[in-house]
């Protein structure tokens, strides 16, 4: 009888020797396993002619299982913030260790010889992939430069529009000339200088004095209701100190705020008692009542060791001895 062997594809133990690899079940499992790996290998072989370079993302750390070598292989090749798609898988497929493991796997499992070339990458193809990878890096840098230029142009446009808005706000407004009656624009600086010079020169015109308004005068459309200021109390508009600036006046310097420490402990004990069951023994005991020394029962007492009935007998013997001593004294 042939020794027991374990098939990793079928995941079972067989005793038929080499005849198991020719069975239908084993060939079906082998074909399904190779077809699951084939799409990734074909996508990697397409990258030989045109390598794709992208910005690094955490999804590029994904690994795939190499059926021939029995180990995990990184699918992409990352360096810094750049990733070459399928670079890690192509590097593994072109290694001599993978070629040796593939030949052994095909020999042990009797797979189709035509499919073996699909899972191998020749050194010439890997050199061609390196050249396309260099071209991909150059094209990626060109695209990044174009993106940077576009962003710079947008930033310049936004800055220019912002400066135009600021300039339009800071430009002086057009003021009509009161002497000529024309609408010619004049600057605020010129108007201010003219006003300053006219104020320094003596005026030859006798302008009528402005009439003084009598606020107590009652007009036909206005009604005076009197001043609304509260006597003795000012406000911030009249120059008084704001309420939030007034210092609080305490009645006593050593006045305590809140309960004392003893009251706090009592309240804490009350809160503990509230958590206990209300129907417990002694919950309704009146602690204010006065009790004499003979309130204990005559059949026993508090004991620290032994059984309670022993303390009862001891209590009786001590009571008898005490009674006998009283009779002897009398």
Mind explaining what this structure looks like?
This protein is mainly alpha-helical and 330 residues long. It has a domain at 39-142. 44% of the residues lie in helices and 7% in strands. It has a 3-stranded antiparallel beta sheet with strand order 3-7-6. A two-stranded antiparallel ribbon has the order 1-2. Strand 1 (5-7) and strand 2 form a beta hairpin. It starts with a strand and ends with a helix. 9% of the residues are buried. InterPro entries: CCDC84-like (IPR028015).
pLDDT averaged over residues = 76
Number of H/I helices: 8
Strand content: 5-15%
Structural class based on helices, strands and sheet pairing: mainly alpha
Q: How far apart are the first and last residues' alpha carbons, in Å?
A: 112 Å
Helix and strand sequence: EEHEEEEEHHHHHHH
Please give the number of β-strands: 7
Q: If you compute it from the alpha carbons, what radius of gyration comes out, rounded to the nearest whole angstrom?
A: 52 Å
Trace the largest sheet across and list its strands.
3-7-6
Query: Can you give the helix content as a percent range?
Result: 40-55%
Largest sheet: 3 strands, antiparallel
Shape: flat
Low-pLDDT residue spans? 181-189, 198-208
